[in-house]
Amino acid sequence: MHLYPSSAGCHIPTQHKGIFGKQGNKVPVMVYIHGESYEWNAGNPYDGRVLASYGNVVVVTINFRLGILGFLPAVDRTARGNYGLLDQVAALHWIQENIEEFGGDADNVTIFGHGYGAAFVNLLMLSPMAKGLFHRAIMQSGSSLSPWAIAHDSIEHTLHVARVLDCPVQHNTALVECMRKRDLQEIMNVEIKTPDYLTTFGPTVDGIVLPQDPAEIMERNSALFTQYDLLFGATRVESYFQFSAYEEKFGMDSERRDKVLRTMVRNLFTYHLQEIFLTIVNEYMDWSRPLLHPTDIFDGTIDAIGDALVVAPIIRVGSFHSGNPRDNYYYSSSATRDKKSFFYVFGYQSEFGDYSSRLGAVTGEDLAYVFGAPLVTSLSHFANNYTKTESTLSEILMLQWTNFAKFGDPNLSPPEGEGQSDNLRGRFEKVTWPVYDPVHQKYLSISMKPRVRDHYHAHRLSYWLNLIPRLHSSGGAEPFPSTVPSFDNGNLNELELKNESKTDANISLKIDSKENEKVSNRDNGNSSQSAGIPQNFYSTALIITVAVGCTLLVLNVVIFAGIYYQKEKDSLEKKLQKNFYQCSMSMINLLESVLIHQGFP
């Protein structure tokens, strides 16, 4: 199925159960926001009838504008560009006004999405324009903090499209009018080179729909964000579709790994690129093996990409929601929240699925179980061959998702007669899903034998959540802790401390733009070179080098002149001695001749 962003309409198909609880009571509403891409897809392929019937909820899927039609930014920043997000807000308004006609409860609305759809869910939680339109949120394998969630360079891409279409770019109104006169296919055919792991046209910080950067809103203005209950999670493998089937089967060599990781580093970061790249390789390769097999290299690389793009960002969002960390690196458990957070990791891979069992559950495999595909012969685009135990797992997920939509807690069961929990007794191990907090970090590992665990991949995710922010910092603003005496233990070299303090107080870091241009021509992607050494250091070293060089040059000239002078002096003395000797001999010969001529013997 090929879905393109040519349909600009907002269509809202609704699937719902025929009987709405006891005596026709209103039931909760679950609104699914599709993902896969900011460029294509639609809500129509996701059939919510099984989920609605099993969980006794109303399931709504929506369509909205995508690509350049949905996220064309204003080049002069005089207008909004988040039309796709505005479509979603309009759909939520429609639900508030009309859902009761379908038996839904407008006061109990949950939005949920996967991938890019999860990023939309996160952004709606942060938008003042969506306030009061929903009450809970579910984010699966995506968040607003993923590097691809915000289109930071969309204005540059818009200018490129305008130049290709020969449209004016001085004023946004003139640009829009020009593009409206162009054929849609002509606009869609404009070739745009999107850097890997980033977005061409997508949500932007426009100051209205999205007033600030998502991280800033969640960190500093969390009142809006934390008014919703949140269920969030990921699968075991989140970057599977970034690689080929051949690489998944046979692996990759270290050269290919380095190209992939260097491209990601250069596209996502600005400072200390070499250090970041080397530490990624060090962190994700299995050095306990004497020789890295190509499949081992592939497994480490796919984990690194998945953690960077999906897992670490979504855990950071969960930590903001549950604890609102004071800064980007260390979380405090002192903050409390009225709304709850629940974290899961889906690790089960379907027995007759389309993917290799070596890696584990691939991103998107949990969707089939949430929508109830194992319970029916065929459902939408999902696979149609499941075992009985997989059907039970699907029932569990639908029960947990709809419980969360109803009560804000996946553990709570509906009143007698309104759910299917009794049918699952004895067929599945019951485990209480704990509330997530940034200190204990407990989560539910979803599989045939669900388990409560804590600190999911703590060491390698700490790399992205703690080390990388520190390493990527341009430095200079914060002194090294050794300059603070209370941070140390024992006697210190006071002279070194004084010198270090003066150095830290004076240095400032700047990026060498020429070096950046040189580096950007290597490998794939757009990037900047690290500027990890103070500029003053370069100036001092250059002055010393020039001074020493000049001194050596002068010394060489003096020595050469002395040697030359001494050599010329010796040569002149030899000539004088030779001339004196010749003159003396001539005088002697002349004197002898005179004496002989005078008669002397």
Automatic annotation (TrEMBL):
Ranges of Basic and acidic residues composition bias in the record: 511-521
Keyword field: Cell adhesion, Cell membrane, Disulfide bond, Glycoprotein, Membrane, Transmembrane, Transmembrane helix
Region listing for Disordered, in residue ranges: 510-530
Subcellular location as annotated: Cell membrane
Residues covered by the Carboxylesterase type B domain: 22-464
A Pfam family per the record: COesterase
Transmembrane parts of this sequence: 537-565
The protein, known as: Neuroligin-4, X-linked
Source organism per UniProt: Caerostris darwini
Gene this protein is translated from: NLGN4X
